[in-house]
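Example (one chain per record):
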Amino acid sequence: MKREFHHKHSLGQNFITDDSLFARLVDLAGVGGNDCVLEIGAGAGGLTKALAERCREVIAVEVDGALIPILKVALEKYSNVRLVHGDVMRLNLGEITSIWPRFHIVANIPYYLTTDLMTMLLKSSLPIDSISVMVQKEAAQRIAAGPGEEGWGMLAVRARYAYDVRIALDVPAAAFTPPPKVDSAFVVMCRRKAPAVQTADEAFFFRVAAAAFAMRRKTMENNLMASFHLSREEAREWMESCGIPPNVRGEMLSLAQFAALSNAAKDKAACQSMG
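Predicted structure:
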């Protein structure tokens, strides 16, 4: 393979070659038996093979055309693997996975794609049971962050709203070829049976949360004023009706507090009148 393929920096190609690490990642992802898995970023096929040996079916997406013939050879003995050549951000994932009632996602994500891809997956209505991703360690901390922590933002809000999130494994740069300049981490997210908080209007809940992070280090009162075109008195009254001090910073609020603010808007008409 080394004679045939050159890693592309532009695609963030950093591959793992340790079979024991592949096996551990599959263990941590918790997939096997009758599970169907969408792998995003098949790379050289090492993780694809580990998934194929444990799971019922695997669909592996790879954007780099130069890797497709290599993958076809590597995966030729696995009848339960379907290889898809394309950009995951442009493919119709619902169509690709339509043969499955539910599925899991496993991915070794290029660093540059992490936020866009994770946001797309978390906002989608795809029937995903779990998302297990290898990402830059800093990105892992942003996905798994909680209220008041440095990484707490919309990515973590969306992740924690729908999933139980944990950093399952720290992975050093030396585990990759070529080694990146930073360490990575494997994040495992299991879909909750119900969202972490109950909301009367889910879309409005996320609007409220987005307002909290629109201007960091500003008070939530100021953020609500700016995001919903409210007077200071209106913003303060809204917050106080939920028992939230108006001078608290937006990034200190929890999912429950975002839900309280969201639910305080009685109905969609009230929501629309504030935006």
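Caption: Residues 9-191 form a domain with the Rossmann fold fold (CATH 3.40.50.150).
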